[in-house]
Specification:
The protein is α/β, with parallel strands linked by helices. The protein folds into 2 domains: 269 residues, Alpha-Beta Complex (Spore Coat Polysaccharide Biosynthesis Protein SpsA, Chain A); 82 residues, no CATH class. Helix 6 packs across helix 7 and helix 7 packs antiparallel against helix 8. It is globular and about 60 Å long. It catalyses: alpha-D-mannose 1-phosphate + GTP + H(+) = GDP-alpha-D-mannose + diphosphate.
Length: 359
């Protein structure tokens, strides 16, 4: 390959759907749950098999710089991009794209969330290689779609269109669907031409910015003004100024659902977006009655519960369909079927007095 690959790891989220395990001072990308390593550490270790460590970048906010340096001591401080405020994924990817473009006019970006679980890393790397190849040939925007193994209401979906000639697993994107209800999810699974939307992407930085110009022209204008001042003593001032004016939007809503250049690679590696306790509970120990538990848990006459313990003994007696989380100074007890509503609950908590220390 005559061009350089760059990995961009998105690590600025708050992870409110995993509250209270995830807090503002220790969001979910820093939680050590799998292989005794943080989600962020696992993400970087995976992509090292394809991208040189000097070309791995992390985008985050000022609050998490120190934690990232502790987790990733091999990543240079100059490879940590910071935003003055969170303005959604289209924006942080745009900021990173102009910074990489300033460094390398042929930069090809692999964009990865920092909170995914992936097994079969060889298949993962092979899938990315397919995406990289089609990006270089067609100057398109590529996303990774995961073959669904269950009807899932917590993920968005991608409908596959025409298969691309000479490629084993690449399709035009027919359309994106937001998170469905359970009946729609079952229907999508039965159709066989829908994939989970993984939120992982491959594209050239210049291609991404051209599509931003088409569909988010105001954001594009701001990014180009930032581009002009990168590397000068005005860079930070310009970023702060432009960010105040930007209306943030996700990359899915802002660009991917509108562009005609969207392709999807059909991926078969084991994958989960560990964005809620239902997905995280799969990594607990299975127990009688359909329960999943951590250490220091005692169950009696209990069914279909997921129990995340800490230092305290947790006893569940005569209950079912609950998520129980002991996170030190906060204990969460929740109906298992309302997992997707936790983010809204945390937003309500922020409006309460005297709970700041618990968030």
């Amino acid at each position: 390959m005559f061009f350089l690959l760059y990995a961009l790891v998105l690590a600025g989220g708050k992870g409110t759907r995993l509250y209270p395990l995830s807090r503002k001072e220790r969001p979910k990308q820093f939680i050590k749950f799998i292989h005794n390593k943080s989600f962020l550490r696992n993400t970087v270790d995976r992509i090292k098999n394809l991208v040189d460590k000097d070309n791995i970048y992390v985008v985050t906010n000022e609050r998490y710089i120190k934690k990232i340096q502790e987790e990733l001591p091999e990543i240079s401080r100059s490879n940590i991009f910071t935003e003055p405020e969170n303005k959604e994924t289209a924006t942080c990817i745009g900021l990173s794209a102009v910074k990489l473009l300033k460094k390398d006019s042929d930069a090809t970006m692999i964009v990865l969330p920092s909170d995914h679980y992936i097994e079969n890393e060889k298949e993962f790397i092979d899938t990315l290689r397919q995406g990289i190849e089609v990006v270089e040939r067609k100057r398109c925007l590529v996303t990774m779609g995961i073959v669904p193994n269950r009807p899932e209401t917590g993920y968005g979906y991608i409908q596959m269109g025409d298969k691309i000639t000479n490629y084993e697993s690449i399709y035009k994107v027919e359309r994106f669907l937001e998170k469905p209800n359970i009946e729609v999810a079952k229907d999508l699974l039965s159709k066989g031409n829908y994939l989970f939307n993984s939120g992982m992407f491959v594209w050239r930085a210049d291609t991404y910015l051209r599509e931003m110009n088409k569909y988010l022209p105001k954001m594009y204008k701001a990014m180009m003004e930032i581009y002009e001042d990168i590397g000068t003593n005005k860079e930070e001032e310009t970023i702060n100024e432009k960010y105040k004016m930007i209306e943030g939007i996700s990359v899915d809503f802002g660009i991917m659902q509108k562009t005609r250049k969207a392709y999807v690679v059909k991926a078969n590696f084991d994958w989960d977006d560990l964005g809620n306790f239902s997905s995280l509970s799969k990594f607990l120990r299975s127990y009688d009655g359909g329960n999943n538990i951590s250490e220091n848990v005692f169950l009696e006459d209990t069914e279909n519960c997921s129990v995340f313990g800490d230092k305290n003994l947790i006893i569940c007696f005569g209950v079912k369909d609950l998520i129980v989380v002991d996170a030190g100074n906060v204990v969460l007890i929740m109906d298992k079927n309302r997992d997707q509503e936790l983010k809204h609950l945390v937003e309500e908590l922020k409006n309460k007095k005297d709970v700041e220390d618990y968030l």
